Structures are given as C-alpha cells and as structure tokens.
Amino acid sequence: MPANPTSCTSPRELSTVLLAGAIILLVVHGLGRFIFTPLLPYLVQDGQFDAQQGAAVATWNYLGYLMGALLAIRWHRIEHIRRLLPLSLAVHVITLLLLTQLNDLTAIDTLRWLNGVANGVVFVQAPALILEWLVSRNRSASSGLVYIGVGVGLLVSSGLVSGTATWLAGADRWWPAAVLSIPLGWWGVARLLRLQIPARVAADGSQQADHGPLFDRASIPLFLSYAGAGLGYILPMTFLPLLARLELPARHWLQDGTWLIVALATIPAPWIWNRLGAKIGDLPALKLNFVIQLAGVLAAVLWPGPVGLILCAALVGGTFLGTVLLTQRIGRALHPHQGPRLSAATVALYGFTQMVGPWLTKQWLGAGGTLATAFGIGVAALAFGLLFVFFVPKPCSR
C-alpha cells in the first residue's frame, strides 16, 4: 500500500511539484537540446558551420544524451538522483555559457556532447523522481503533465531565437538560453530535492527489489517500438526549420514559423495524451499516437512546401511527447518495481536511435541526397515502431 494516501497531497503541492518538473524539462530540453533546431539555420548563415557539420553537432549532442541515459540506468536509486540531478543542471548551464565564447567546431561538438549527457540524466531522473512520488500518493495519472515543460520550452526557444535574430550573431546567439537557464534550473531542482519518497516495502516487510531483467517477452516489443519512435521523430525535430529554409522563398513566414507550429502543438499534447490514455487505455492511445505521427513525417515527404511543412510540424509536435509519456507508463506497468531504471533504459534506447538519425542524414546528404528525401528514413522508422506496438501485451495480462 502507498505510504501516503491521496488526501495527504494538496492540489497546491501537486501543482508545485509538476511545475518544478516541467520547468526543469523546459530548461534542459527547450533551452539546451531543441533550441539548436531553430538556431541551426542562423548558425549556418553566420558561417559557424555548414549543414553537414551541423548534423554532426546534433549527433554529438544525441550521443551525450544516450550516455546520460546509460548513466541513469547505473545510478537509478532515489539517493543517486538527489546527487546527479543538481550536478547535471550545473553542467547544462556551464556548457551553454561556454558556447557563447567559442567558435571552434571541435569545441562546439564537445560542449554539445556534454550538454547532451546532462540532458539525458535530467530527462530520465526528474520525471522518474516525480512519478515515484506520485505513485506513493495514488496520483500517477497526473505524471504525463510534467512533459508540458518540453512544449513550453520549444515555444520559449523559438521566441528567444527569432526575437534576437537581428541583433545577435554566431556564438552570441547562445546567450539568451544560458541566462534564462540559471534561475529556472535552480528553482526547479531545489523544489524536487525536497520531495519525500518512501521506500517500497514487500508483503514480508523487506524492501522491494528494484533490479531484475528489464528485457522479456512483454517489454521487448515496447522497446523496439520506442526505438522506431526515436528515429522517426528526430529528423523533423532537428531539421524542419532548415528544410523550410531550403524549400521556401526568402523571408517566408514558415522559415521560423515551422518551429513555432511545433511548439504550439507540443504544449497541449501531454495533457491530451495523458487524458486519452486514461480514457481508452495507454496501449490503444499509443497505437493512435504512432499513426498520427507517421502521417506527419510522411506529409513532409509527399508534399514539399508549405502544406507538408505545416502538417509535419503540427502532427509531430502534437504527438512525440505523447509517445514518451505513454511508453513510460506502459513500461512501468509491465515492470512496476523498476520505475527509474526502466525509464532510463527506454530513454537510452530512444537516445541511441536519435543519435543515428542525424548521422544517417549526414551520410545521405554526403551521398548526394536531399534533406526532404532523408525524411523518408523517419517514415520507415515510425512504421517499424507502429508494427511492434501491436505485439505489446496489456500490462494487466502479465
């Protein structure tokens, strides 16, 4: 039985905890990771690097994200999270501050890799910590709301980049994200470190184990579907503004507008998929999620230009966080005593496929392919992921 009944958690306390988690995800994902997407066309324009080198910079960041998630698998206990979470936020801030001072491509690669490590750790540990706290209070259905921070972060990143585009250039374009990260990150992590989470106790009075096999006949299809999702969504989330710049005439509103559409679609997405999962079940909701996301990436391939770009931005932006929160909840239901560890494992797999996406794009461009046709890789990956969702059993059947 949970150590604390639902009645012990006030609406104000619940809202504050979810807000703290959302702000932390806004910082590391919106201001750390995905701000690179709207920045990429400007940094290419400023001569810091070309499109292929930009893809390599993105790959280094995703490699760091993968390594951060792997670290979170190794150090997954609550006491580990309390140490690694503030350290990772500090690394995030320091790397952004250093990016404002450097133009050397090797240094940029290194800093983006370190920022990815910090991002991977935080993206696993902050939601996992909150989910364990919510489970102990019978409030796990609210867990998906923490991902609203990612959507707001995309909107903030879009505003920071487009709003300072005319008076910042080169490395200076990183300053807004670095400055805003400091107060937001400090408040969010300070609030989460105060959470009281009781240890799980088995029927015999011993502490329940949080280790064991993560990969079995129930979870392997879920991991495979999540791998497809990671590779499928990362191409538009990395290259959509650059694709808009290549396909549209100069000063077309969609050159910056695609990322704004993604951000606006992302903000309500966690609430929508959180509610839909509660209403029809997380597994049916995940199948629907894959279908819509697949249609979004396919639109960019079939209809080059404004129509395809708008559909891709809206449909991918409105679904990718739903994939994350639904998969995390299904996975925890399949392995209920390994929450943080399972979250880290799924994010690590997601991180690996996200790292592969920009690398494949770089190879495709180097071989003479176009960025628009490279989105076909995402279509194939999402079709692969959708297929394996149908092999995931209902958690209650285990």
Automatic annotation (TrEMBL):
It comes from the Bacteria. The chain crosses the membrane at residues 16-35, 55-72, 84-102, 114-134, 146-168, 174-193, 223-244, 256-273, 285-302, 308-327, 339-360, 372-392. GO terms for cellular component: plasma membrane. PROSITE patterns: SUGAR_TRANSPORT_2 (PS00217). Gene3D superfamilies: MFS general substrate transporter like domains. Its main location: membrane. It is a multi-pass membrane protein. Keywords: Membrane, Transmembrane, Transmembrane helix. This is MFS transporter. It is found in: Membrane. Pfam families: MFS_4 (PF06779). GO terms for molecular function: transmembrane transporter activity.
